[in-house]
Amino acid sequence: MEAAMRSFFLHLAQNRTLSGMAKRYGLRYGAQRFVAGETVESAIETVRKMNRNGMGVTLDHLGEFVEDERDARASTDFCLHTLEAIHEAGVNSSLSLKMTQLGLDIRKDLCHQHMLEILDYASARDIWVNIDMEDFGHCQITLDLFREFAASYQKVQTVIQAYLYRSEKDVEELAQMGASIRIVKGAYKEPATVAYPEKSDVDNNYKRLLDIHLPSPGLTSIATHDENMINHAKQVIAEHGLSQDKYEFQMLFGIRSDLQEQLAREGYPVRIYVPYGDDWYGYFMRRLAERPANVGFVVRGMFH
């Protein structure tokens, strides 16, 4: 039943018609639990609150279905606007983005140009830029571009998904070059030809990736709400005596706030992934797919 619901919500996430309707009707039906408003001003207020609770943030201006160069330019400008808002507010926040928003599916050179503009802007303001990983079809080109950017910019990071078979080899190579990565389990629907279909295999691979990358020179962001993965990371951190500038725990806004605050109280560095914007529909559907229990928030929202 849970697998069927996951498949259902991942299918809905790709529906452009519903995404357009969601934009028109705004943040309703429980989405506001996972999205920090539609404007950068509302997002910065959320960052301040998280900072006061001892946690950093990574801000993501949500966007799906970029179809032309005008859309890609608008997304780039939103990234630059977000960086400027972070800088002016003096808050502890990085920027997260998807390269398809910047035109990767239109022209590689267009996305490359936009990324350099963003990285130059962020570097001048000493702000980290996190390049999110998307579906398997974008994995290789994302890593190719990331390796190029990481050779020139210090504060840039990408994501590795533990459910992919290829990830162990990718992490070994990235660890050798001292790259910074965020390790996640993976939230897209992928075939068994490229991804582990069983949760136990994904969990075991996640632990292997932590074992490989945590001792490496780059920053390791441990992105999970799974306490088994968190406890494994704590063991590796203790065994290697890692300093706090070598790792951080990352979690999603609106999910397991109790665990986020507990880790911060224990003295671990914690960063919260905070999305904002009116194009929230696809992100929201993927959160429902990850944890069908979240559907309860939607039902309650419909009656309020």
Automatic annotation (TrEMBL):
Its EC number is 1.5.5.2. Its cofactor is FAD. GO terms for biological process: L-proline catabolic process to L-glutamate. Binds 1 FAD per subunit. Keywords: FAD, Flavoprotein, Nucleotide-binding, Oxidoreductase, Proline metabolism. Substrate binds at K98, R286, R287. Pathway: Amino-acid degradation; L-proline degradation into L-glutamate; L-glutamate from L-proline: step 1/2. InterPro entries: FAD-linked_oxidoreductase-like (IPR029041), PRODH_bac_arc (IPR008219), Proline_DH_dom (IPR002872), Proline_oxidase (IPR015659). Residues 43-298 form the Proline dehydrogenase domain. FAD binds at M133, Q161, K185, G186, A187, K199, T224, H225. It catalyses: L-proline + a quinone = (S)-1-pyrroline-5-carboxylate + a quinol + H(+). GO terms for molecular function: nucleotide binding; proline dehydrogenase activity. This is proline dehydrogenase. It comes from Alicyclobacillus mengziensis. The lineage of its organism: Bacteria, Bacillati, Bacillota, Bacilli, Bacillales.
